[in-house]
Structure formats: structure tokens, C-alpha cells
Amino acid sequence: MVVGTEHIVTALAQSGSEASEGLGPRPSPSPSPRPRLVLGQREGRKRAEGGRGQADLGERAGPSQGPSCAGLPSTGTGDKTTASSSEARVRGLSVSGRIIQTRLVVVGPGPSPSAAGTESASKVSGPQDDSRELRGVDAANRSTGCAASWMRHAMRRNANERTRHRGGRGVTGVMAVRRAGPKDLSMLLSERVGRSLETTIKGCRNSGRGSAAVRILPSFEFDFSVLIQKESGGQGVWVRVFAVLPVIDGSQHLSIQERNKMDLPTLASVLQLALSTNPEERKAGEERLNQFQHAPGHLVGLLQIIVANNVDLSIRQVASIYLKNVSAREWTPRKPESPGVSDGDKATVREHLLEAIIHAPPIIRVQLGECLKTVIHADYPEQWPVLLLAIDGNLKSQDQQRIFGALYALRILTRKYEFKDEDERAPVYSIINTTFPVLLEIFKYLLSIQNPTVEIADLIKLICKIFWSSSYLEIPKLLHDANIFSLWMACFHNLLERPVPVVGQPTDPEQRKVWGWWKVKKWTLHIMNRLYNRFGDPKMSKPENKGFAQMFQKQFAGMFLQSYMTLLSVVREGGYLPDRVINLALQYLSTSVSKSVTYQLLKPQLDVVLFEIIFPLMCFNDADDELWRDDPHEYVRKGYDIIEDMYSPRTAAINFISELVRKRGKENLQKFLAFIVEVFKRYDEAPADRKPYRLKDGGLLAVGALNDKLKHTEPYKSSLELMLVQHVYPEFGSPAGHLRAKAAWVAGQYADISFNDQRNFSAAMHRVVAALKDAELPVRVDSVVALRSFVESCKDLNEIRPILPQLLDEFFKLMNEVENEDLVFTLETIVEKFDEEMAPYALGLCQNLAAAFWKCLQSAETDEDDDDSGALAAVGCLRAIGTILESVNGLPHLFPQMEPTLLPIMQRMLTTDGQDVFEEVLEIVSYMTYFSPTISLDMWSLWPSMVNAMDEWAIDYFENILVPLDNYISRSTEHFLTCQEPNYQQSLFKMMSTVMADEKLEDSDIEPAPKLIEAVLQNCRGRVDEWLEPYLRISLERLRKTKKNYLKDLLMEVVANALYYNAGLSLNILQKLGVTQEIFQVWFQMLYATKKSGKPVHFIREHDKKVCILGLANLLLLPAEAMPQELQSGLDQVFKAVLKLLVAYKEQRTEAAKGAEEVEDEDADLDGWRSGDDDDWEKELADDEDDGDEADTQKLQKLAAQAKSFHPHDDDDSDDDFTDDEEFQAPIDNVDPFIFFSDIMNGLPPDLDLFLTSSFGLVLYISAMSTTDPARFQALSGCLDFQHQAMAHGLSQHAEERRKEIEKEMTEKSQSGAGMREQ
User: Fold this and answer.
1) Which of 9, 80, 682, 1139 has a CA that sits 20 to 30 A from residue 753's CA?
2) GO molecular function, one example (predicted)?
């Protein structure tokens, strides 16, 4: 029980003109209405000064100098607030060389903090004279500034208290900021108060014997609790000791109770707890942080802790991470119910975030940068117009730290507009016009510095990134000025030409390639490549950019090409260049090949480029050999990782060769191939112990990379089979493993050529199959990948069928050994080729793929190198499972057998854990719910996971989720309707109502919702009356807000489906909602709306028309008294609309049938073309002109014109012409609309025999029997004009034809079934 008085110390001492490392209010001789937030100086200055500028006890603090966040709200001694009776102020203490703040707590014996910690510190009690005494002490100390005397007096007073309160042993302790332990307490109390910790404890306990044990316990309500207990035992005394951080009061006007919630020491303690290695403590800290996230001032409090240099860096780091996450989640909340960040907190964070970034250490700056990115994307420029001025002011400050922070922020700001379209780029033009002049001056100054440090490289790199983001999609108008652009190009040219400093380069290869100066070189290459590739060709430029392109091509393209050649000469000389730099340099050369101006400059040096730079890069090298031997798995990963291709010099070399022979093949292809032939010849002639294996490897890579060109160009095309037999296939037996792997890869590249001797194809395929058992892992992987091409090209599957079990066995051995999605591609190809023949292996395949998936997933989760190979392989496993399920869809009995294997994957991956594979998992769920004979209860357990995902994050997958949900409703209707726990009907409506009401969602995002409503109304006819009104209400509410025609159609079809479900009930609901007339007017306007071409705007699909026909026709069955008056008077319009829809439906079906026949004919023609002559193709590929870029431009223009002629544009057609999904099945598929309407029109009930093919035909039949009114239909027919009478007559005849066709189909079906039963 607390018996003393709590005293809160809120002043932070600072001395002289030096800035403290702390962060807090500035004490001043007179009260200040708005204290300033003081930030620490740079780390380098702190080290140099050795912690000077910190106040000792009794020393009066002076004003602080240094950078500050002026105006940041704070509580402290600088304001006008006077101390309460329970508060006393202390100037500050110096412990371990740090300025601290303290909170003094007087407690007596009592329970641990876990039991008593919930008591509010403001609700302390004690004798009245205690408070008066302390107020007097406080006043005296404030007048003298002597903190030490105040503390001694408090200690003496507390020592006397033990005799006044019998049994109560009071103790006073003062704790340094964070993590201060017994040593700090002892130092503080002995050096500054004049007594040791042990003496203090002994004196407080009336005992001169024994020693003290002190341990620190984290507490939520308080920063730390100290347990002081005698060594010999006895009752302990809990002392609560606080580290008081400078306060930023985000809400500026919080009450005492609110401040308790946002107490900064408490927040620091919780952040400390979130770092705990104890999972329970860490979880408790995270939960408490989540409770705080919406509290006023919380983000500001986090920022306060982040910028406090006297706080442990780990606490500041976790605070910065949490600030980043909360900002990303709550600055612009995704969930409407979330309160988000208050406007006051937003304003405070915006005001001080840039200053915080300027002074933050790198580990924290990166987190604050992400926070800045969030704020910029949400608020700039509307809510944060002053940001640009603040950045510009810091750029002009002449202070390197401020310039760096400003550049860092400017990079984030410009990156917002990096990919923005023209109509969204207006703000970036203002940014460029404001900052680029000063950026250029800074750039030139930095380049003029002699012997620059790596810190200078960091500044230059930021300038390069800003230029990149500002000019990525469009050249700023400012740079169209030739003089200004030339100055920028001079700077970049300087960077390319100057050698990278030798001093300071790391020796470690991984660190060396990311060293600051090499990154500057990389970004310079990036920029020049982008400028030339996108903006440097006048023929490909926009009219407004042609002048710029001509200037670049004339003045700079050639100049930079020479700089690139100089840079690449290092490769010839055996010097060091990072892989990424080589890759980017070769990209510029590839672009230069296609441009006449630079190709003419490159041409004289082309032999040097080809044979001294390009080809050596293509050959197997020392690094490859080391990786092959030491880490074959990593060798395989790098070889198949498309991300690695962005950094690989070898990939860039291959791309250069490919571009050269494609654009300038006439003069270069033969020369290059002659060189490769010479390499092969020298290899064949060399003795076995001196064969140049690595050169042969490069030659094979070149041949394989040029396969597209060689397979279509004579005379090379005719010689390919001989080349393979002489130079490729023999290497399957090479002693060099990398040559065996390369032979398998090249064989796969040419597996689809026409072999004159089919035995060569068979021999190659069997060698590839044999290589699946090679001792070297990379050989086995390359062989599996190559096998895919052989399986696709194999004309006689009997060659593979006998060895299929062996193949599958080797596959799964390899999949257990390596994670590679290309292996799965081969497996998919085999499954597709053999289709239902895979049935005996299906279960085993799924089990092996599932095991491989879990392994890949575990690898992806534990991988610390940001390597995506495991994740990609996991996706491949799921895709292969989907392929297997599709291949055995005709064998439904297999699906229940595979369910136990696949269910755990579906259960896990339908949560947030499966966001990267969600689409693939939904495909598996779709197959399992569609092809399985019945949907098991285990499969039903997946429904809540999909609905929860939709509610939280999976709106982008709504179209994919639609399929399995439709399957549940249509194939397990009874369970959907009768299950109460969970209530599937309720959860479905909740999900769809949320989606329909979300105005932030695009119309296209909502389209699956009305489709699901249709599934419910059609499959549950007569059994979901209570849901009809809710579904109609949410659909009509969304219809009023909808802009896209397709969604309008779907929402109106909800009305049509409702009428078909129960016309009378639906009309009553529309009347109740008061929308009957409005809805039918809109519906009829949509029915008659046409485009300029005469095509309908709405209800384009056959299914759309059919739904409308059935809904309106069912309306005609209602007796007159069941219809509203306005509908009775317009019944003839309903009748005519049905006729119109039926005619359009009939015409569309006829066109679809005709189109199907034409497609079959085109397929036959295509097969003939494939088997025909390739002369024209070869001629086109072989015909390269010197100005290949001009030829390409003409071809592109011709293709664009042809594409335009095939897609005539209709001005008023803003939506796609959606077509029917051939695989989609609906209950109304068995209802023929012609027969249905014909029977109604003739005053007859629908034909029972035909109509009962529908699951709900009996309901309509009984309804029609009781409601048909022949006289009414005769009257309607009689008022038709001649045109509509002709339409009605024609439709009646067509209905009879359809009736006979259906009868015939049913007879044949029954006979077929009888025949099968007899067999």
C-alpha cells in the first residue's frame, strides 16, 4: 500500500551553449509559453566533445543551443504551469555521463507491482504535513537551484517517517534514465547524495547488518520497480522508480487521466517489453501497444522517444518501427470503422518529421523514411504544402547533415510521382522547378571536392535517385533547356569518367559491390540508360520531345558510349567491376546497336566488344566453379532466378548478342558463328587432358541463346541437326559437369526442330532422361528442365510411357532436394500430355507435391537472404496440384482420396499466411468443391476462412473466391440452407452487404457480389424468402451509385432473378421500398439503349438476356390483382420487351454457333500453315538493313494500324464486351426461354415433361396452372403492331422446333443410359 507522496520531476538540465543529448523542454529564467524540443547534435560532434555540456548537481542549467524542432508541444518547467502539492521539480542529475530526468517515488512495504501497479500514481495518500513540508522544500530548491539538498532533505524526512509509521519502512530511490540497475542507483546515491545504496537500505530498515539485492522488473504503469530485500530474508520493500522522458503532449490539452494513458515512461517501458526475448512479455508489450494506437498523442509520443538521444537506441528503433506500422495502417485507415490518427497528431507529426529525419541515426532514419512516405502519399501537397519549402530551406542551409536529410526526404517526395501519369504529375513540376537549381549547385560542389569520402558518395547517390524519379516517365520541361541539361550531363559524365577511389574500398566482395562509390556509378549508368532508351530516339519520341531527343542523340549519346567503352575496358584488363555495373553498361551497348548514330560509332570497336568482352563473360569462370563445388544448390538457384538476371553480366552479354544478330545480323551473325565454330574445332583437336572446357561452355551457351534466330534462318537451319550430333550430344559424357549440364540445356532448346533422322531425337531424349541420375545436382536440374521440351515435342508418347514411373520417381527425388519452379513446369507438361493416364499416379503425385510445398514454404519462411526461390517453388507446387486435379476431373472418386493431403494446405493458406499463393489455393478449393462427388464437412470448414479473408484483405481476389462459394451453394445446397453453426446464409449476406456499401471500391471489385446473389436465388428457389428483401435493398442502393455498365447489368439482374424466384413477393418488396416505377423505368431504358454501332449497351451476354427474359416472363404469370396499377398499365411494354430480348437471344446463339464452326476451320488452316513453308518468315528475319531502327519503326506503325482496323472504336462504348463463360453452369441452363415464354403466351402452363428438367420446374408448373389467364394474353397479343406480331409468331415456331430438339436429345440420352445398364 502506498503511504508516501509521489513527486514527478519534469525538468531536463542543460548547461552552457552546448546542446544536451537529451530531448526536452528548455529551462529559462522566465516562463516560456511554448517550450522547444531540443534535438541532439550529430554523433561525430558528440564523440569529439566527450559528453560535455551536461549539468552536475547544483549547477544551474543554461540555455541550450543547437538544432531544434521549434514549437513541438511539451510539458515541463518552461511553461506557466505551477507544481501541484504532490510534485516537486529537480533541475537534473548526471549519471554515467548522461543528462537524465528523474521521478521520485516514496513507498512503503507492500505487494509487488503486479498486484499494486494498477493504482494510479496520482491517487497517493499520506499525512498532510508531508505535502506541506515537501512544498516548502520544493520552493526552496527552486529558488536556489540546489537539487542535491532537496534530495538529502527528502531522504532524511523519509528516514524519520519509519518511526512515525510503525511497521512502515519507507525508502526513497532515484533512477537514471532506462535500464539503470543497482550500480547506477548506488552511484547516484553515493556520489550525488553522499551515501551508499547499502547504507540507505540499512538505514531505512533499522538494521546495520546484511546487504541488499536489487532487481529491475518491467511494469506497465511505471517504468521500473525495484525490489529491495535483506539478504537474510524478511519482508521486501518495493520502490517504484521512474525514468522520466521529455514529454510531447500530442493532444496538447490532455487531462491527468488521459495523460496517465499516454505517459511517456510507460510507453518506453512497453516498447522495452516488446523487445523482450520472453515470448509472453513480448506479446504483452505488443498487445499494450495496440491498445494505445488510437489514443490521442500516441504517435507524437512515439516520435518523442525516437528523437531522444538519451534513450537506448534499441528502444528508439522499436518505436520507429511501430510508428511506421501504425502510420501505414492508421494514417489513412482502410477500414471505415477505424478512427485513424487524429488531425492534431497528424499536424504535429508533419511539423516535426523532417527535422527528426535530419538528426536520426541511419537505423532509425530508414523507418522514419517509410513513415514520411506514408504521410507524403496521403497528405502532399493538399495537407502539407510547406514540406517543399522546408526541404528547399534545408538544401540551402550549408549544413551537411541538414542537406543529407533534405535530400533523403526529397527522394521520397519525388518517388511518389515516379510512375504517375501526366494528369497526376503536376506537383512534381513544382518540386523540380524549386529544387533542381540548388541540387545542381550542390552536385557541382560535391564533384569539386578533392579526395571525397564515402559520405560524399551518399549525397551524390541521393541526387542521382532524385533525378531518376523526376525523369523516369517524362523529361521535365526545365531540362529541355539545352544549357541546363548540358550542366547536368557534364556532372554525370564526370561521374562516369572519374575512377572509383581505391582508398576505403572494402575487401569483402559482398560489401565491395554495395560500397557508396560503386553505387554512385551504378545509378549514373541507370540514368543514362533510361535517357537514351526512352527519350534519346527522335523517331520514337512524342512530338513535344523530339527536340530533346535530337539534342541527346547528337550531343551526348556518342560521348557517353565512349565513356561506357572506357569503363568496360576494365573487364578486358582483368580489373574489378561489380556485376551490376557490367550489366548496365552492356545494356547501353545493346541500345546503341539499334540506333544508327551510335552503331556507327560502335562498329569499329565491335570485334573487341564481341571477342574480348562479350564472349569471355559467357564462359564458365572461377566464380562459377567455386559456387558449383561449394554450394551447388545456390548455383542452381542463381541460374534460374530471374532477379539474378538483372545483375548478371552473362545475361547482359547474351542479350547483347541476341540484339546484335536481330538488328545487325547480316554483317555480324556469320562472323560470330565462325568464331564459335573455331572454338568447337580447337576443343575437338585438343588432347583430353588439355581441353578448353570453359571455352566450349561459352560456345554452347551462345548456340543455345541464338536458337530462335538459327531455327528460322538458312543455311543454319538445315545444319542444326548435324551440329547437335557433333558438338552437343557428345558432351553428355563429358568429365566436366558444367558441360554435361550445358549439353542438356542446349538439347532442350532445339528439341522442337524437324529431325531428319528421328533416332537422333530419341537418342537425345534418352540421354536427357539418363542425366536425371547424374551425380551433379545442376546437371540433374538442367536435364529435368530440358525434358519438358522433349515431352512437348514428342510425336510418339509410347517412347515415354514405359519410363513414366521412373521419371516421376526421379522428379520427386529432385524436388525433395532442390526448390525450383521450372521442375514443376516439366511435371505439369507431363500431366497435361498424359491426362487421365495419370490417374494411377494422381494420389502419389499430390502427396509428393504437398510434401514439397511444405518444405518450400518452410524454406521461404526461414530464409534470411530475401531469396524468393522457395516461395516461387511453393507456388509451382500448388499450380502442379491444380493441373493434376484438372487432369483427373473425369474420375470424381479420386478427389475424396486426395482431400486429406490437400486440406491442411488449404486451411493454412486461406489465412494471411497464404497471401502470396491465395489464387492458386482458391483454384484447388474450386476443383475440390466442383469435381468431388459431395462436399465434405471438412471442406465446408474452409468457408469461414474465405469470408474472413474477404472482410480483411482479399477484396482483390473476390472473383476467385466467387467460384468455390458458388460451388458450395449449388452443389451442397441443403447444408448451406440448414446449417446454423456457422450460419452460412448470414455470413454470406454480411460479406456482400459490406462490399456493396463500400464506396471506396471500384465497380469492377463488386461484380462477383450480384453473381453470388444470383446463385442463392436460383439454387434456393422458394427457401430463402426472408433474404429476398435484404438482397434487393443492397443491390438497389448500389445500383444508384454505379457507373460501369456491366455492374449495372448484374445489379438489375438481381431484380430479374428475384422476379423469377417469386414475382409476387418481389413486387411487394419493391412496392414497400417505393421503387417499383423507378426500377422498371431504369430497366427499360437499359434494354433499349444502343451504341453508335447499333449494338446494345446493356445485357450483352446470352446469360444476361436469359435472366431478364425469365424474370419478365414470370411477371406475366401473375394475376392482374397482384400487380401494382402502374405495372398493369404498362404490361404491354413488358410483353414487347420480352419479345425483343428473345429475338436478340436467338440471333446471338446463331452467331455463336456460326463462330464456333469458323474457329474449327481456322484451326485446321493454322495446322496446315504450320506444316507449310517458312520462307517468308526466314526472309524477314534474315533481311537486316543498316538502319534497322527505321525498319522497326515502320513495322511497329504498320502493326499498330492493323490492330486499330481490327478493333473499331465506338465513342460511347466505355465497357468491355463481356462474353459468356463456357464453363459456367447455372440452374436455369435447363430452362429453355423460348418454350417457357411460348407456353405462357398461348395461355398454357409450361410443358411438364420438358420443364421438369429444371430442379424447380414443378413450382412454376403449379403456379402457371393456377394463374394463367388466356384472355389477358390474347388481349396483349391483339394490341401488338404488325412487327411485334411477326416476332411473336416466329418465336412461337422456333419454340416448337426447340421442343422437338430437346425431346430428341432426351430420347437419345435415355437410350444411351439403357444401353450402358445392359452392358
Assistant:
1) 682
2) small GTPase binding
Give the closest residue to 1279 by CA, choosing from 1164, 1170, 1156, 1139.
Answer: 1139
- Please say whether the beta carbons of 711 and 717 come within 8 A: yes
Tell me the C-alpha distance between 434 and 406, whole Å: 13
Going from the C-alpha of 884 to that of each of 71, 138, 291, 807, 877, the distances in angstroms are: 66, 81, 47, 16, 11
**Cα–Cα distance, 1006 to 955 (Å, whole number):** 9
CA of 1001: how far to CAs of 916, 996, 1035, 1052, in Å?
22, 9, 15, 19
Answer for the pair 791, 799: CB distance below 8 angstroms, yes or no: no
- Helix H or strand E encompassing 171: strand 171-173
Contacts of 829 (CB under 8 A, 6+ apart): 788, 791, 792
**Whole-number Å distance between alpha carbons of 657 and 654:** 5
| Spatial CB neighbours of 609, under 8 Å, sequence gap ≥ 6 | 565, 568, 589, 602, 656
**Residue 869 pLDDT:** 63
DSSP three-state, residue 238: strand
DSSP summary character for residue 75: B
Paired with 239 in beta bridges are 226
DSSP code string of 275-296: T-SSHHHHHHHHHHHHHHTTST
The residues facing 422 across adjacent strands are: none
Q: At what angle do helices 147-164 and 128-144 cross, to 10 degrees?
A: 160
Instruction: Return the closest-CA partner of residue 909 out of 864, 860, 869.
Output: 860
CB 535 within 8 Å of CB 550: no
CA distance 708 to 1141: 51
Distance CA 141, CA 617 (A): 78
Q: Nearest 5°: phi and psi at 107?
A: -135, 170
Cβ neighbours for 1026, distance < 8 A, ≥ 6 positions apart: none
Work out the number of other CB atoms within 10 angstroms of the CB of residue 215: 11
Indicate if the alpha-carbon torsion angle 1026, 1029, 1033, 1035 is positive or negative.
positive
Torsion, Cα 515 518 520 525, to 10 degrees, reads -150
Residue 151 neighbours by CB under 8 Å, 6+ apart: 90, 104, 172, 174, 192, 193
Q: In this predicted structure, what is the pLDDT of residue 1044? A: 93
β-strand partners of 212: 230
pLDDT in tens, 43-57: 333 333 333 333 332
State the pTM of this model.
0.66
Distance CA 1260, CA 1252 (A): 9
Q: CA-CA distance, 97 to 14, in Å (whole number)?
A: 13
The parts of the chain modelled with pLDDT lower than 70 are 1-262, 336-337, 863-870, 1156, 1158-1224, 1241-1278, 1312-1319
CB 1220, CB 1156: distance < 8 Å: no
Distance of CA 475 to the CA centre of its chain: 28
How far from 339 is each of 58, 331, 967, CA to CA, in Å? 47, 10, 37
Query: Which residues, at least 6 apart from 247, have a Cβ–Cβ distance to it below 8 Å?
Result: 10, 24, 25, 74, 75, 76, 264, 304
Helix (H), strand (E) at residue 417: none
Q: Is residue 675 a contact partner of residue 609, using CB atoms and an 8 Å limit? A: no
Instruction: Say which residues have a Cβ less than 8 Å from residue 707's Cβ, sequence separation at least 6.
Output: 749, 750
R_g of the chain computed on alpha carbons: 40
For the chain, the maximum distance between any two Cα atoms, rounded to a whole number of angstroms, is 120
Contact 1275, 1301 (CB under 8 A): no
The angle at the Cα of 178, spanning 172 to 183, to the nearest 5 degrees, equals 60
Cα–Cα distance measured from residue 1055 to residue 1057, given in angstroms and rounded to the nearest whole number: 5
What are the φ/ψ torsions at residue 810 (nearest 5 degrees)? -65, -35
**CA gap 350, 330 in Å, rounded:** 15
